[in-house]
Amino acid sequence: SELGAFQRRKDNMCKKGQIAACILYVTNGITLALSLAGLGIGIWLLVSNTAVTNSVPDYLAVALTVAMVVFAFVAGLGVFATVAQMKENNDTDPETGGALGKEGCCTKDCCNSCGISLYSFFSIFGSVGGLIFGVIAIYYAGALPTEISNAYTNSSVATTVDGWFTSLDSYIDDKVYSLIERTTTSGGTDWIDTQDLLGCCGWNDTAADPDIYLTGGCCTVANGTNATLIDSLSGDTFTSLFNGELAITFSECNTVQGSVLTCKGLVLYSTQSNLVTVGVVLLVIWFVLLVCFICALKVRSALEAKTARMSPQKKEKEKPRLCSRHRRVGEMAKWFETAMSTG
Questions:
Q1: Do residues 183 and 194 touch, judged by C-beta distance below 8 A?
Q2: Sheet order of strands, 259-261 included
Q3: What are the contacts of 59-62 at 24+ separation with CB within 8 A?
Q4: Is the model's pLDDT at 287 over the cut of 90?
Q5: Which residues are registered as beta bridge partners of 255?
Q6: pLDDT of 144-188, one tens digit each?
Q7: Residue 125: CB partners within 8 Å, gap ≥ 6?
Q8: What does the CA dihedral 287, 292, 295, 300 come to, rounded to 10 degrees?
Q9: What is the pLDDT of residue 45?
């Protein structure tokens, strides 16, 4: 019947991993297209000389370009490894796949499977990372259920993670000040562009050397004197930010009663206020990568299943040769026995 024929076709597709391959084609194809588009934007920001591109610091454009190259590489690997593996899965030659597990990655069989295996590793690695950082982001956004938050807060893990974040905060401060000093003394404008883009002045120290650290357009007032700065990490300032009493606008000076905010507070506020969105995006990435990992395993295992199904046929072909060799040995033994007896 038509229903039976449809079921047989469906079972055959599942055995060959075609459904899993379609999922990999779609997800990796979309990711590859978006990555190439982002790569084009990153290159445009680096090489173009316009008002828009000049307002973006070079390190941001470089970071975007590098990230898009990584995403494009993994997505491209997923597409081409799936194509190679599916071509091998659909090969009707009984010898195809016979080298798996025998000769390392020196054969075509093993090279095709190494590609999908490498993609599987990247997928599960990214999936685990997305899950961990997604849960952490949602926790610090205060969006987790109270029971889960309390259980985490009262555990030793919370103390350890908080210690990590404290060390990370100090490390970032040291690196930022080192990069600012290096950039400013060498005549670069990245730090000036960053301050102008965020609408702030300085990183966190309101009394830093104005010739090195306080160099943005918001660091001076109309008559050319140094502007008054306010600690944007203070409790009162953060409370005003989260209560909506202060509005953050990029590319314009952000002030509190005439005093300019420092940049670190604006960065932390922008991060904190978007943690829920970041967490949700990371959890979506976790789910998609987990699905890709499972599909890659299915595509990879289809070849092993095909090899196992064909192995009895190979044994049947080998049986007559083995029997004929044994028969010849038996005939030679009889001939030798006869010759000895007549001799």
A1: no
A2: 229-230, 259-261, 255-256
A3: 59/190
A4: yes
A5: 260
A6: 788 877 887 777 877 888 888 889 888 988 998 998 888 888 888
A7: none
A8: -140
A9: 87
Per-residue tokens: 325:
């060799």
Q: What is the pTM of this model?
A: 0.69
